Amino acid sequence: MRAQLHRRGLILCALAAITCLSVWACGKKTETADAEDSPIGVTTQVARSETLRDVAAAAGTIVPSSAADLTIYAPEAARIDELPKHENDLVAVGDVLVRFDIPSISQELAARELAVAEARVRSETARANFTRLTDLYNRGLAARTVFESARADQLTSDSVLAQATSQLEMMKLEASRATVRAHFPGRVVRVWHVEGDTVAGGQTDPVLRVVDPSRVQVSVQLPVAQLARILPGQTASVRAFDVVDPFAATVAFKPASTDPNLPTGDVRLTFDQPATVAIDAPVSVEILLEQRPGAIVVPTDAVVRDNGANYVVVAGDDGRAHRRDVRLGLSTRTMTQIAAGLSAGERVIVGGLADIGEGTRISFSH
């Protein structure tokens, strides 16, 4: 009897333990289900229709226009005979800026002038001799062979004179390189030498620089990878740091080819209207690369790119997240155009997308 009672007690204890475990398990299951179905807080933004602009933004510098910037170098080793202008002097068209004494040109010019003088004397002598012999020949006092020889000598001497004169004119044109005159009005901004100095010539030894401060451009250094999207004629805005309103500008030119090993390339902009901005002044520049009016746009951070597929996650009116496959259009650093798959006014989730799946309960602030 005692053994049966003991066995019955053990069975009752076991049943009680199983009951407790079942109650605990049910409680945990309910708690887990409640936790899994609790909403996840997300940040959303409303897809809207607007004009999407993609721009290249960079810092720039005001520089003289390439047609209004002249730096003078000697064509070869020379002595500066005349340097009448000084820094900040005004310059008019035709003013002498530098006059060089180039030994090789001076020597060659003197030799050509001597050759012309000698050829002219020979020509005049041959002409006088031919005139005299013509008279004698017509009177029968000179032999025909002598007459023909005199005529040939005159023709030859005239040809030599013409050739020597032509060579002298060419040499004078070459010598004009020794005198540099201003071909636009401007101001001298830098002088590196004084009269009497000897200069080496070439691009390593400048003498004087003249610019027209009323004709300026903007120099912008852009990444080489971005230059492919830059085209002459693109519109731009230039903002000087001491001017409230930006200046309208246009891309004038970019490098025809750029060393891929260089980080940037120089792009030049011209102002649409004359701009009174000082040379060397820093400016900020925005070049319009592309524009899409009436585009449906969302933050670029809201777009998920997954193995060639593009989608956004929409915050539905049912309080749950829903994947929406979309086709993309123009994309900038901050905003992306949705060409298909989304309508203006729908809310897309911007952050925490890795923790959200189809149908996930969400709560959002806006």
Structural account:
- The chain has 366 residues and is α+β, with helices and mostly antiparallel strands.
- The chain folds into 3 domains: 40-56 and 293-364, conserved putative lor/sdh protein from methanococcus maripaludis s2 fold, CATH 2.40.420.20; 58-66 and 215-291, Beta Barrel (Elongation Factor Tu (Ef-tu), domain 3), CATH 2.40.30; 67-181.
- It has helices at 2-36, 103-138, 144-175, and strands spanning 40-42, 44-46, 48-64, 69-73, 78-82, 90-91, 96-101, 179-181, 186-191, 198-199, 206-211, 216-223, 235-240, 247-253, 264-271, 282-299, 304-306, 309-315, 321-325, 327-331, 335-340, 347-349, 362-364.
- The protein has a 6-stranded antiparallel beta barrel with strand order 3-12-15-14-13-16. Strands 4-11-9-6 form a 4-stranded antiparallel beta sheet, with no helix packed on it.
- A hairpin with a 3-residue loop joins β20 and β21.
- Residues 10-35 have low confidence and may be disordered.
